Amino acid sequence: MADEDQQAPEIESSAAESKPEPAEVKPTAEVKATGAVKAKAPAKKAAGAKSDDDVSRRGFLSWTAMAWVGFTAAIGGCLGAFNRFMYPNVLYEPPTSFKVGPPDDFGKGLVDERFKESNGVWIVNSEDRLYALIAICTHLGCPPNWLQGQNKFKCPCHGSGYYKNGINFEGPTPRPLERARIFIDPDDGQLVVDKSQVFQWELGQWEDPNSYVDLA
Length: 216
What we know:
With 216 residues, the chain is of the alpha+beta class. The protein folds into 2 domains: 28-86; 97-214, Rieske Iron-sulfur Protein (3-layer Sandwich). It is built from 3 helices and 11 strands, in the order ααββαβββββββββ. Strands 1, 2, 3, 4, 9, 10 and 11 form a 7-stranded antiparallel β-sheet that branches. A hairpin with a 5-residue loop joins strand 7 and strand 8.
């Protein structure tokens, strides 16, 4: 019995020693797949977060650019309004006094139209006198035209007509054309026209020596 009892622990010890270790459990394909998904999920989340940050940054920059453009436009508009206030529109008119050239430039019996558009006068050489007729109809202020073939001034607005010397003879105009002062500059011998001084026939002013240059 003693021998049997001594052998029993040896058998148990030997059984314990010979008991196989638990086999290493290898991850199945499902576990691997699950592990792979779990491992990649955080990376995708991080990538998504980065994309959201990029979109947010781009949106912020776009709004900032738009705000800056709007601010610049507003400042430009304010400056433009300020400049218009400081420098209001001014109507620049040609000078009332100007030179037209020497008397020899104006042929006898002719109406010179070179200064009608720029200065609003005709220079007329008639009966040994040079005078400057103001190119404004005395009816309603339209600019008449010189009709060489008909030897008269004709207003295109209401049909008023004037002879070469400016006397009215047809249409609704109530009086002749006006003349401007004309004289010879003693320094250079050129004719000078001064529209700031006008002469009216009905007032007897056409005989004023300042209303013509005598060529006789």
